[in-house]
Amino acid sequence: MRSFIGLLLGTVFMLAIAFGAPTIAQTINFGDQSFTEYEAYLNPAQELGPASGSKAKGYGRLRFPKNLTRSDVQVQLADIDSANVTAFHIHCGTPDVLGPIVVNFGQFGEFKNTIKNGSFSASVTNDKLTFVKQPPPPPNLAAGFKLPLPEGCPSDIIIPAQINTIAGMEALARKGVLYFNLHTKGHEFYGEMRGQLYPVQKS
């Protein structure tokens, strides 16, 4: 009787291995089919510069797959002429702070070609996290004041660390220190509108 029970348990165990492992494997998507999303409402009221009277507005999303291999960007703009767009970036900084550039969307092509019917999209990978040179300061900036260098971003330590991976970018998004900034002719330094990125609110 004991040998029969032992044989039965052994058979059940072998069947669990034979048929259980593939079932588990089939449920794993390796992080490319599930996502974390962040959103921003772009508006001139978020800019640090003087009020422009601009009616421009926008809505943007960053979507990171769980394996953090890329960030998919979707932005919808309104009441703005794409021919006037001179630069479009994701910066690193808290509200009311001029932070360094993390992603320069100019590398994806001229904005008159990449912004279609007010819509812009791009897929950012590690090699697209290229930093641009700091623009010259505006004429009314206090003498001796230096803007943050484009090599670093706010971090948990005093010394800023350059972000080299999408994983680092998503970590900054979780802290709420990433923002979109759209620059236009006449609003080339501060930008015409800005949008701080926060986790998407599920309704």
Extended strand count: 9
Decide which structural class fits the backbone.
alpha+beta
Strand percentage: 25-35%
Largest beta-sheet characterization: 5 strands, antiparallel
Shape by Cα distribution: globular
Helix content: 10-25%
Q: If you average the pLDDT, what whole number results?
A: 81
Characterise the protein shown here:
By secondary structure, the protein is of the alpha+beta class. Helix content is 20%, strand content 28%. The protein contains three helices and nine strands. The strands form two sheets. Strands 6-3-2-1-9 form a five-stranded antiparallel β-sheet, covered by helices on one side. A hairpin with an 8-residue loop joins strand 7 (178-184) and strand 8. The longest helix has 26 residues, at 2-27. It is globular.
In brief, what are we looking at here?
By secondary structure, this protein is α+β, with helices and mostly antiparallel strands. 20% of the residues lie in helices and 28% in strands. The longest helix is centred in the N-terminal third of the chain and has 26 residues, at 2-27.
Features of this protein?
5-stranded antiparallel beta sheet; 4-stranded antiparallel beta sheet; 3 helices; 203 residues; alpha+beta
What's the structural blueprint in terms of helices and strands?
Blueprint (H helix, E strand, L loop, with lengths): L1 H26 L7 E8 L14 E9 L5 E8 L6 E8 L8 E4 L6 H4 L4 E6 L41 H10 L2 E7 L8 E4 L1 E2 L4
Antiparallel strand pairs: 1-2, 1-9, 2-3, 3-6, 4-5, 4-7, 7-8
